[in-house]
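Exercise 7. Predict the structure of K(+)/H(+) antiporter NhaP2 from Halobacillus faecis.
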Amino acid sequence: MIQEILESNQFIMLMALLLIVSIIVTKFSSRLGVPSLVLFIAVGMLVGNDGLGFIYFDNPEIAQLIGVIALIVILFEGGMLTKWKDIRPVVAPSISLATVGVVLTTSIVALAAKFILHIGWIEAFLVGSIVGSTDAAAVFAVLKGKNVRPKLEATLEAESGTNDPMAVFLTISIIQLLTIDQVNILGMIGSFFWQMGAGLAVGAGIGYLASLSLNRINLDSSGLYPLFALGFAFLSYSSSSLLQASGLLAVYVTAVVIGNAELAYRYSILRFHEGFGWMAQILMFIILGLFVSPTEVFTWPVMVDGLLIALVLIFIARPVATLLSLIGFSFTMKEKYFLSWAGLRGAVPIVLAIFPMLAGIQNSQLIFNVVFFTVLTSALVQGSSITWIAERFHLVSDKLGNPIHSLELISIGKANVEMIEFDVTERNIVVGQKLENMELPDRALINAIIRDGDVITPYGQTEIKAGDTLYILVARKNKKEVKKLLEAIKEDEGEHEKSRA
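Solution. The predicted structure, encoded as tokens:
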């Protein structure tokens, strides 16, 4: 009994140290220009059986389960931060990249894998389908905080959030071709359209239900609202999966619907899921690092094969797929090249590479090892240079939007008011106005202004300046009116004259 308690306490301490080290690692990742996912995987490999030997883990079922759960959390957090007004103009090219682009990438990589790995054609297409899609976790993590043009950022986020169903469909379909004697091809095609359509419908429906519930149901604690929202994310995935539809697509759509709705407790929900999303990333990549065997992956045959496939993927397959998928869409060549370079691979291909192992496919261990090294190469080469490429192509721009955060009061659930936090930019109409001249609703009051790190107590003659952060107490029913006033943008002289005419 005492021995079991000591072992459990040691395990808890190890988990605590892994969490602390992983969070510290994120600080170094930004300084080194290396995506944090690479360092998380390195931590997992370090404490695994082939490293220091602290944890022995080789269960593909548990690795897949943890990977899927983590992807749900990460997709949900990323989807809630996606603004519909930003992705609406790029929905068509994003879907083209997520479907046609994935098929083209799969085909080109399969052709290379056939001759590089010396495997059969169906197995080669399995490799292509596994690495065919970009990864939402990697894309969301790398683009966060980068000043890439909103159009390109929205395209990449929408593509990575919607291309997983195509990769999952192709992977499972090819595994069926390898394991089942007779496969109905027409049935597989019909299944794809069902997965996409039903996943979209379920996600939109549950997203609407979640938004309604979050606003209408008055819970006793603000900490329950983020958990309430997370429950709808898992409901969306499980409902879609039970209907044989795409669960990951449903989760992303649910998150977009919730994130673009007027939520009374948005700040608490977003802040919780930001931290929980990081937790999911850390857990997922450490588990994947534990699952992989460095002594098998980092051998010359695997590294050479993985590097060759990575080079084909990065410099041939992805560029060709991007250029062909975006024919007819309004992107410059520089923007297309950037979208091609920013197509990161991450957790999704590694999780998909576990599927052949679960199905008992021949050469499944070889496929997993090669895919793992390919993903690692993609993350290191592309992920560490995205900012440099964007600056080199002059695709970095000032953020015109300024987020409005709602800070819920301590007496949440009892007070019908919220505290809005708003960052003022030079383009806002309110710049230069005195508080006494602002047409705020009766039940709205500017309580504080942060300027150059100092707190300013506002009074009637206080003038708003660019760079100020305003804290406004407002009744919930007047929140839309206040947001409209704050977000109003100055018109250029030419636009102003045109609007008057």
